[in-house]
């Protein structure tokens, strides 16, 4: 949903999106994510937002245990990018759609944070 | 309780993931008398000869926090069930192990497949029930209920008690 609001004669372009239970509000160049289950407001930087369009962000903090893809390789939907050992569990991070790997930003045994971009797709 | 029984498979977690991918319903349990390539966290081998209790449960889709809680709760449930059934004092080594007399008796591994959201989750539990002996490299760190109690235990009864309790707990935390 897109709309404009006017505050003190200045006009702001607002973009509102709901995705996986989280509400994203984009105001000007900045994006805010309101996680419904956490009740917290997180500002995502514009750099992260740009990467997010073609990047695979880690959904949890943990350690990259194994990487199954290489830069330039094609990955089919459902196939593994990498495994993350996190929150006492082993997690396979898989491709949502068929894609090609542009850049891998992490290494095996590297600690990653929630939201950190792991892989950039072409 | 839907239980799929096998004589020998590679790994109950692997089989449960395959079945979940094929659309098999949550809470279906995969149990095997032997695991040819049983594994724990970080791919470490889990000794799985005949006599032990090896099973995996296809979990309902949940958020990652609930799945973490159920993993930790599973260790408590296994320890509690063993304590109440056999009058022994197991020790929980968080997050994923249960010890008896200082040696490992149970290991737990939750695996999630994540795309834009959590696609599927399975929890695997291996309990050293009626194992008579361990290889040299494990005998100082692992034990079995049979070795500790001096008698065999009923794997099916233990399995059903643990699953019933896990289902109850999952219901509570999901509400």
Task: Give me a quick take on this structure.
By secondary structure, chain A is mainly beta.
Name a few traits of the molecule.
heterodimer; A: 122 residues; mainly beta; 5-stranded antiparallel beta sheet; 4-stranded antiparallel beta sheet; 1 helix; elongated; B: 175 residues; alpha+beta; 7-stranded mixed beta sheet; 4 helices; 33% helix; globular
What does this 3D model show about the protein?
The complex is a heterodimer of chains A (122) and B (175). Chain A has 122 residues and is mainly beta. In chain A, 7% of the residues lie in helices and 57% in strands. In chain A, the strands form 3 sheets. Chain A has a 5-stranded antiparallel sheet with strand order 1-2-3-4-5. In chain A, strands 6-13-11-8 form a 4-stranded antiparallel sheet. Chain A has a 4-stranded antiparallel sheet with strand order 10-9-7-12, with no helix packed on it. Chain B is globular and about 45 Å long. Chain B has a 7-stranded mixed sheet with strand order 1-2-3-7-6-5-4, with helices on both faces. Chain B is an alpha+beta fold and 175 residues long. The A-B interface holds A 20, 37, 59-60, 65, 78, 85, 87-96 and B 41-43, 63-65, 67-68, 71-72, 95-96, 109-117, 119. Strand 10 (89-94) of chain A pairs parallel with strand 6 of chain B.
Number of DSSP strand runs of chain B: 7
Question: What structural category characterises the helix and strand content of chain A?
Answer: mainly beta
Main sheet attributes: strand count, strand direction, barrel closure of chain A: 5 strands, antiparallel
The global form of chain B is globular
CA-CA gap between termini of chain A = 27 Å
Q: Please report the number of helical segments of chain A.
A: 1
Strand order of the largest sheet of chain B: 1-2-3-7-6-5-4
Radius of gyration of chain A using CA atoms only: 17 Å
Radius of gyration of chain B: 15 Å
Main sheet strand line-up of chain A: 1-2-3-4-5
Strand content of chain A: over 45%
Structural class of chain B comes to alpha+beta
For the residues shown, what is the average pLDDT of chain A? 78
* Rough outline of chain A: elongated
Q: H/E series of chain B, N to C?
A: EHEEHEEEEHH
User: Which regions of chain B are unreliable across 5 or more consecutive residues at pLDDT < 50?
Assistant: none
């Amino acid at each position: 949903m897109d709309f404009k609001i006017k505050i003190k004669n200045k006009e702001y372009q607002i973009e509102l999106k709901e995705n996986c239970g989280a509400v994203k509000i984009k105001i000007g160049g900045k994006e805010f994510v309101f996680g419904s289950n956490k009740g917290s407001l997180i500002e995502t930087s514009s750099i992260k937002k740009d990467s997010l369009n073609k990047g695979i962000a880690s959904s949890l903090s943990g350690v990259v245990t194994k990487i199954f893809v290489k830069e330039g390789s094609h990955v089919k939907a459902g196939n593994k990018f990498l495994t993350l050992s996190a929150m006492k569990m082993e997690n396979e991070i898989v491709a949502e759609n068929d894609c090609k790997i542009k850049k891998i930003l992490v290494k095996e045994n590297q600690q990653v944070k929630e939201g950190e971009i792991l892989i950039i797709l072409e | 309780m839907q239980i799929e029984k096998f004589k020998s498979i590679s790994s109950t977690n692997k089989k449960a993931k395959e079945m979940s991918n094929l659309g098999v319903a949550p809470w279906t349990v995969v149990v095997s008398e032997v695991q040819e390539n049983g594994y724990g966290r970080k791919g470490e081998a889990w000794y799985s000869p005949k006599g032990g209790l090896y099973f995996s449960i296809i979990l309902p889709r949940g958020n990652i926090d609930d799945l973490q809680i159920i993993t930790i709760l599973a260790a408590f449930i296994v320890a509690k069930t063993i304590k109440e059934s056999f009058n022994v004092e197991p020790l929980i080594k968080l997050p994923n192990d249960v010890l008896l007399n200082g040696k490992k008796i149970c290991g737990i591994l939750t695996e999630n497949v994540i795309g834009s959201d959590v696609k599927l989750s399975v929890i695997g539990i291996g309990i050293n029930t009626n194992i008579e002996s361990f290889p040299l490299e494990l005998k100082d760190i692992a034990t079995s209920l049979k070795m500790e109690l001096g008698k065999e235990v009923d794997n099916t009864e233990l399995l059903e008690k643990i699953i019933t309790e896990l289902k109850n707990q999952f219901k509570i935390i999901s509400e």
